């Protein structure tokens, strides 16, 4: 019997398995797929990632795949317009093991983000207490009554488009996992994510649409412990639609040009420690 198409990695618009272990797996989520049932834009008919799990992990073998109370094994969310890797547990023991890693900081989640403006390379973290109103489609905000939130940042490249609009390519590692944390953090300091109609000004998002019709936010790396305690990682390059965003851009420096070349070619460093923050132009 042939495996489902999204397991064969044959279609960029379908989820696929990028790392398959006995009791846990990593999926690559394309944009337009919803991870959790109460996610934003509840009125939209997005494709449902949880419903796909039963085709890859039959519930007769993996009962958690149909258990909504345990998120069908999905460990974390990823916004509908975003792409990247998502971790799923195939057993209840794996689910609680990974939940413990998640809440104690043992799970690493790294993102590539293109934002407006030239974020100063000296800015190495973003903090802000993130508050989310529990209703469909609501935005998160930075408020004093919000939950403590921290995003580590590395500014990798500065560029300009043909109209002279400035952009920064960032690597971001989240130390906490609040709803829309990255998007609200960068917008709060004045550098909204490209293509983000929720947190950028409407005119800005509308202008982005021609070159980037969805959020330029891609979770490119996950690292976690497997059932034996060994470190596992899954890394996926920028998808083609995000690579196209850089067409026609110029670079502020040779370092920016080289960083963008690596990211668009899929050869960027994996380890956070190997990512080079921009120096003076």
Automatic annotation (TrEMBL):
One GO process term, biological-process aspect: enzyme-directed rRNA pseudouridine synthesis
Organism: Alexandrium monilatum
Cross-referenced PANTHER family: MITOCHONDRIAL RNA PSEUDOURIDINE SYNTHASE, RNA PSEUDOURIDYLATE SYNTHASE DOMAIN-CONTAINING PROTEIN 1
Superkingdom to which the source organism belongs: Eukaryota
Similarity annotation: Belongs to the pseudouridine synthase RluA family.
Name by which UniProt lists this protein: Pseudouridine synthase RsuA/RluA-like domain-containing protein
Record GO terms (molecular function): pseudouridine synthase activity; RNA binding
CDD domains hit by this protein: PseudoU_synth_RluA_like
Pseudouridine synthase RsuA/RluA-like domain mapped to chain residues: 66-188
